[in-house]
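Model it.
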Amino acid sequence: MKVLLLKDVYKLGRAGDVKKVADGFGRNFLLPQGMATLATPNSLKQAEKIKSEAVKQRAALNQEMSAVAEVLSGLSIGFPAKAGETGKLYGSITAEDVATAIKARTKIEVKRQQIDMQPVRTLGEHKIYIRLTMDLVPELNVVVYREGEVDPTAKAAPAPAAPAVQAEASTEQA
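Modeled.
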């Protein structure tokens, strides 16, 4: 079945595109959700109008979300977890866990559906992506470490160490 997309659809296309999709996907998902219409000669005449409106909306949304993308890009989040000798977790870190950690760390609410990842089941550093818009997809680091170890993502405080060294030097001179 050929459909004309009315909205951007992740991994399918942008608004105004004509795509060939499986009958069930079009009939049961795209059409009822209002994301597409059947590609008839009358609807194809409106394709350029839909594309131009979508470009304007996409530009406005990208500008709005760019500040959020800057905060999220390069963010490192640590998760303590129980793991076996081989580094395999007794459980997993899911998109829901990552969304909760992002909200606790940055006060930015991200839906779990926006997080593009498979459940993490091993220790170590993993890269995940957050789909804010089709164009803005910041990359995050998820670090999974054993329970009881020091969080590698926690910021070390070098500032208190420097004054302590100065204090020792000043006491030696006196």
